[in-house]
Q: What sequence folds into this?
């Protein structure tokens, strides 16, 4: 840096240095002006401004160099070589013009970098070619460091200078860009001059030279040309700006003077470029708030999401103009209905440079139009959407209007009954279109007379015409004040058919299509009356399907419905005259027949039984149980006849191998008793009629008590002691077993928790209880309430409890066992899949059914089964308990075969209070 300052002070004339700096600043200001003019011009204009600017700037930079060289005085300069001096001028002109073309046409930073490199390289080349043109009695040696520094100073500052010149529009940015460029050129010159070391040498006078005086004249001319070019550029720019300003003032006066609509400009990207008074009044935005904002600022959020602003601009961009209406938003958030026009503006090359947008508030006009249109729509909708046909006639009997429903109802076109047609002609045309011309003429007079009567008497009922299977109408006519009248025609076909369907549905089953219980009752009432008069009999067969619940549970209700439909279809196909089949319940049917000969009844029963050989979805036949009762032999009335048939059917269902059962006296007594038991069961808990007894379970190894089984007993105040074998099945059928079973479990746990011993308590679970989804939660709740340890509770289930829904039952058992509760299999060996059941669940105990012990004294087969079960228990590691031990011989058999536990009358009968823990049980003789 010190060397450069010494070079300026010692080797240069400061006057020439100042003059060179002024020429350079004037040149760079010209370059900035030309760049900005080119940026706002058309493509052709850009080329002209760039060439002019490049020429003026290059000339100025060349003049700057040589003015500075005139001030360089090492005392030995003889002249300047013409060829190299001219070459330096051509280099700087070419590179400067090319750099300005790139800077004005390319907007990306990459283009400005390229222009900076090109211009800076041209300046450096001009400098060193000009230095090579010097003729003096010395040789030039170059300092490489200063040489490279001069090139860097020429290139690097040009990028920010060009950025300011092209991206900004203010005066400060223009002056800053010019100063940076001037600094780059001055830095190039003086750092380049500092890089020179002169070595004295002799001069060869063979080349043509320019003397310093001639060079001064040339530089003076070049400077004058530069000044003329700059002044011309400034004059043209000022004229252009003045014209633009005048045009903008005129356009602004025009636009801002319009206040009843919004007129403003959008740039090429759809942003607001200016704002007039009408736009401010209409939309509420001030210019400083909205200029630069996108078009979407005026649209509702849902419209922006739908892309309406982009589509409007795209339409204007592609077609030149967009017109439309829609909701727009003001600054305060209120909406108005706007009529919008957007027109595009293009430059000379056809490129879109912006859009003109006009917006008018037509909310009130839109509301008025909507009200008128709405009124018309309401009127038309009221006429066209009436379920009735309507014809309006004037006082002369001429058609004024007919609604759409009238034409649709009669199958007419609009041209067949135009306005002005006489009323009787309208009627004739409508009838002919529906039932033919001949039928229409035959009925026309009668119908017309009835219509005239309805006009004279407003209270007369509508005229009902059943024209065909598809059309039944009701016609009414009423006079108006002006003498005309209105005739309405209502299509009541659907109502009539609906009434018929309702009657049919009331008397028939919706799934099978068979008559229902009401129809059966009506038929039986009539047949019994006729049978009494004609000395004949009436038979009723009550039918209940077998395995139907299993089909619903395993295959789904849709499969069950298909089976019922097949049965209904089969029964309907085999019926003959004097017979009826009805569905009276879920899977219950009834068929009935009047007959005189018993052989007729037998043939009827056979025919019905054969028709019910219907297969389920898996190919198995669905069986049925039949109960038969006759009038007057088994009953004297319809209710008794149906009840007795049901009793016989239940007897057939309860008797293995029997599917057909005839009613016999006494059946109703058993059914009545079961119903009585079921009714009393519903109140037994509330009346505290249940008690629990506890039967001890003995370990055959320690001869001590190992636990107790809780046994339920019912003492009815009137019926006395009722056996569990009698009331438990009824409780399971009615569902009362759920409440009773929960009471048993809670009472047993509460009682066992009060014992001082830690003996187990065993409680039986019904299959119905096991299928309850909340059983594990119920058990857990009872254990918490009673305080009984889970390990002291043992739940006993039979393998038949797993048959209905094995997966659900096993899932509940696993959850119960996870609580710490033991699970035992009761009555082992009496089912059909005992081994499979043991394989499916890890039971804690197996209980041998007492029936095997009772037969063990006289049946070797029973003894073999006992031994097999005990061996199975040992192999699986599951303890085995034998029930029903009553004799010492039975006990000996169990001890000899290694049985773990036993219970029965030999160790004591069930009692309300268990024996103390650990007590040895005395055997009963």
A:
């Amino acid at each position: 840096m010190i060397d450069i300052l010494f070079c300026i002070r010692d080797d240069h004339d400061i006057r020439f240095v100042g003059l060179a700096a002024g020429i350079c600043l004037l040149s760079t200001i010209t370059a900035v002006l030309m760049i900005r003019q080119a940026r706002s011009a058309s493509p052709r204009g850009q080329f002209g401004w760039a060439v002019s600017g490049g020429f003026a700037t290059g000339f100025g930079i060349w003049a700057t160099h040589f003015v500075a060289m005139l001030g360089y005085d090492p005392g030995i300069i003889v002249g300047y070589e013409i060829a190299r001096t001219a070459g330096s001028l051509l280099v700087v002109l070419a590179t400067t013009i090319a750099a300005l073309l790139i800077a004005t046409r390319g907007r990306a930073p990459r283009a400005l970098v390229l222009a900076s490199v090109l211009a800076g390289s041209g300046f450096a080349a001009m400098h060193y070619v000009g230095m090579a043109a010097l003729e003096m009695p010395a040789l030039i040696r170059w300092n490489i460091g200063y040489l490279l520094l001069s090139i860097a100073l020429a290139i690097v500052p040009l990028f920010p200078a060009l950025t300011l010149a092209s991206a900004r529009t203010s005066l400060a940015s223009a002056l800053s860009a010019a100063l940076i460029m001037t600094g780059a050129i001055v830095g190039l010159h003086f750092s380049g001059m500092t890089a020179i070391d002169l070595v004295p040498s002799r001069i060869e006078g063979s080349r043509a030279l320019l003397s310093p005086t001639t060079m001064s004249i040339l530089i003076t001319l070049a400077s004058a040309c530069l000044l003329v070019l700059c002044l011309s550029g400034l004059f043209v720019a000022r004229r252009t700006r003045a014209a633009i300003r005048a045009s903008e003032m005129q356009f602004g006066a025009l636009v801002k003077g319009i206040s009843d609509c919004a007129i403003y400009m959008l740039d090429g990207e759809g942003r607001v470029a200016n704002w007039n008074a009408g736009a401010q009044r209409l939309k509420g935005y001030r210019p400083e708030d909205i200029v630069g904002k996108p078009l979407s600022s005026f649209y509702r959020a849902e419209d922006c999401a739908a892309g309406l602003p982009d589509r409007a601009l795209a339409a204007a961009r592609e077609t030149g103009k967009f017109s439309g209406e829609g909701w727009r938003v003001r600054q305060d958030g209120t909406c108005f209905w706007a009529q919008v026009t957007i027109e595009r503006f293009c430059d000379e090359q056809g490129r879109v440079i912006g859009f003109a947008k006009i917006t008018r508030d037509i909310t009130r006009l839109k509301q008025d139009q909507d009200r008128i249109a709405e009124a018309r729509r309401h009127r038309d909708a009221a006429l066209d959407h009436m379920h009735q046909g309507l014809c309006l006639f004037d006082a002369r009997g001429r058609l004024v209007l007919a609604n759409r429903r009238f034409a649709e109802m009669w199958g007419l076109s609009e041209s067949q009954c135009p306005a002005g047609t006489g009323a009787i002609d309208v009627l004739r045309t409508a009838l002919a279109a529906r039932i033919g011309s001949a039928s229409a003429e035959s009925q026309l007079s009668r119908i017309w007379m009835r219509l005239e009567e309805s006009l004279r008497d407003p209270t007369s009922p509508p005229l009902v015409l059943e024209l065909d299977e598809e059309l039944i109408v009701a016609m009414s006519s009423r006079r108006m004040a002006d003498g005309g009248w209105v005739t309405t025609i209502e299509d009541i076909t659907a109502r009539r058919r609906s009434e018929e369907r309702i009657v049919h549905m009331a008397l028939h089953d919706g799934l099978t299509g068979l008559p229902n219980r009401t129809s059966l009752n009506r038929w039986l009432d009539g047949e019994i009356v006729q049978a009494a008069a004609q000395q004949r009999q009436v038979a009723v067969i009550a039918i209940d399907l077998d395995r139907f619940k299993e089909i619903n549970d395993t295959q789904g209700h849709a499969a069950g419905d298909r089976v019922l439909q097949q049965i209904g279809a089969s029964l309907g196909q085999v019926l003959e005259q004097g017979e009826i089949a009805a569905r009276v319940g879920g899977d219950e049917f009834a068929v009935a027949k009047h007959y005189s000969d018993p052989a007729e009844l037998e043939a009827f029963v056979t025919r019905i039984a054969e028709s019910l050989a219907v297969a389920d979805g898996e190919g198995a036949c669905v069986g049925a149980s039949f109960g038969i009762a006759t009038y007057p032999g088994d009953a004297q009335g319809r209710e008794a006849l149906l009840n007795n048939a049901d009793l016989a059917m239940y007897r057939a269902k309860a008797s293995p191998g029997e599917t057909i059962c005839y009613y016999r006296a006494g059946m109703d007594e058993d059914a009545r008793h079961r119903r009585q038991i079921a009714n009393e069961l519903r109140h037994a808990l509330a009346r505290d009629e249940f008690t629990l007894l506890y039967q001890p379970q003995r370990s055959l190894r320690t001869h001590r008590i190992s636990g107790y089984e809780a046994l339920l007993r019912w003492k009815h105040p009137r019926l006395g002691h009722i056996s569990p074998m009698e009331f438990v099945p009824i409780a399971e059928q009615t569902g009362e077993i759920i409440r009773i079973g929960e009471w048993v479990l809670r009472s047993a746990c509460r009682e066992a928790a009060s014992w001082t011993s830690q003996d187990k308590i065993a409680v039986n679970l019904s299959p119905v209880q096991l299928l309850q989804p909340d059983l594990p939660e119920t058990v857990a709740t009872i254990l918490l309430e009673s305080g009984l340890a889970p390990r002291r509770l043992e739940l006993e289930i039979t393998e038949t409890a797993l048959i209905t829904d094995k997966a659900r039952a096993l899932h509940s058992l696993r959850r119960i066992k996870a609580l710490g509760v033991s699970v035992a299999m009761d009555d082992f060996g009496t089912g059909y899949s005992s081994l499979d059941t043991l394989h499916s669940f890890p039971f804690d105990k197996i209980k041998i059914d007492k029936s095997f012990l009772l037969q063990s004294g006289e049946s070797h087969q029973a003894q073999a089964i006992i031994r097999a079960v005990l061996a199975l228990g040992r192999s699986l590691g599951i303890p085995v308990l034998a029930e029903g031990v009553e004799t010492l011989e039975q006990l000996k058999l169990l001890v000899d075969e290694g049985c773990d536990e036993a219970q029965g009358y030999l160790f004591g009968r069930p009692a309300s209070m268990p024996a103390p823990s650990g007590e040895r049980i005395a055997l009963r003789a």
